[in-house]
Amino acid sequence: MSFFSKLRDRLTRSSSKIGAGLDDIVAEGGGETQVEAPIAASPAVAPEPSKPVATPAPGIVGRLFGRSASDEPRRELDDEMLEELEEMLIQADMGVETALRVTANIAEGRMGRRVSSTELKELLADEIARIMAPVARPLPIFPKRPQVVLVVGVNGSGKTTTIGKLASQFRAAGKNVVIAAGDTFRAAAVEQLQVWGQRAGVPVMTAPEGSDPASLAFDAMVKAETDGAELLMIDTAGRLQNRQDLMEELAKIVRVIRKKDPSAPHNTLLVLDATTGQNALSQVETFQKLADVSGLVMTKLDGTARGGVLVALADRFGLPIHAIGVGEQIDDLDAFDPRDFAKALVGLDA
Ligand SMILES: Nc1nc2c(ncn2[C@@H]2O[C@H](COP(=O)(O)OP(=O)(O)OP(=O)(O)O)[C@@H](O)[C@H]2O)c(=O)[nH]1
């Protein structure tokens, strides 16, 4: 199955919220069917070029009943409709600022036009893809050996799983990868990482239970260097933003890593759980202060109606989004593709 199909199938809770929300908005306005040329509406003076809306392909219902997209119910784009659109986007965790801007861009040059739900989905997908395009960047690979990737996040956000999945992909790409089990306080966490190491075919370095995670990180760097590893991925214990002691511990790990290599960690990945919705924004703020976050991975986009938060994150922080997770299996993580994500999020087919 292609990753887009997987994304499309598993993002359904978010996409049905947004997709069905758009259908409802159009239907609520009376939504009478009326044949009208679809809006090829580029605003007279567009701030940035946005893709003109081409005649959308008929949906499955349209194909079955021979109804073309231009026969779809339409609603006049007015202030009331825009308010409903804003409200729906906020409900979908896109955040107030982002929702307002997206809505304003959709409205630009199109007020008074009659739009169908499919057209609205296309317009929204275009806006989302435009916001997301600059942040869609795979994990950068540096010539430095070992490249140190520190993985941080709150409890249960999916750090260990993400490390396992990434390690497997880098291994498959021929990289010499080592994992360090930095959650030295939880034996179960170390065991879980070892299972992922086995699946990925990557060695996992551990330290005695209860030992200082910063010294494990240092030792792991020495060993990775001696062994000629190209990539060292360091797992860390999950920590809530309000636990000052644990946040200090993280800052110490970073300081000790820098003693060994001032240019390290070369990447600090913050793993975020999509189901936490708007809380992800405050997690980014806190971790950024302590650990100089260089990129994000968003997990658990399957099974949540809060996938819109990724748009808010991209819009607010502009941090690279390296990958997204849509399941618990080793191949349920892939590079972030803004166009695919935008289409899946609003419920459009490829
Ligand atoms: N559905 C789904 N579950 C996921 C995904 N990523 C991780 N999980 C699950 O989330 C749970 C927590 O994942 P972990 O990788 O253990 O999270 P962690 O951040 O290492 O946890 P701590 O070490 O306790 O902080 C596990 O049950 C994973 O299988 C995902 O993309 N989708």
UniProtKB/TrEMBL annotation:
It is found in: Cell inner membrane; Cell membrane; Cytoplasm. GO terms for molecular function: GTP binding; GTPase activity; signal recognition particle binding. It catalyses: GTP + H2O = GDP + phosphate + H(+). It is a peripheral membrane protein. Its EC number is 3.6.5.4. Residues 146-347 form the SRP54-type proteins GTP-binding domain. The keyword Hydrolase applies. Pfam families: SRP54, SRP54_N. One of its GO terms (cellular component) is cytoplasm. Residues 145-328 form the AAA+ ATPase domain. GTP binds at residues 153-160, 235-239, 299-302. GO terms for biological process: SRP-dependent cotranslational protein targeting to membrane. Residues 59-132 form the Signal recognition particle SRP54 helical bundle domain. NCBIfam families: ftsY (TIGR00064). Part of the signal recognition particle protein translocation system, which is composed of SRP and FtsY. SRP is a ribonucleoprotein composed of Ffh and a 4.5S RNA molecule. Involved in targeting and insertion of nascent membrane proteins into the cytoplasmic membrane. Acts as a receptor for the complex formed by the signal recognition particle (SRP) and the ribosome-nascent chain (RNC). Interaction with SRP-RNC leads to the transfer of the RNC complex to the Sec translocase for insertion into the membrane, the hydrolysis of GTP by both Ffh and FtsY, and the dissociation of the SRP-FtsY complex into the individual components. This is Signal recognition particle receptor FtsY. The lineage of its organism: Bacteria, Pseudomonadati, Pseudomonadota, Alphaproteobacteria, Rhodobacterales.
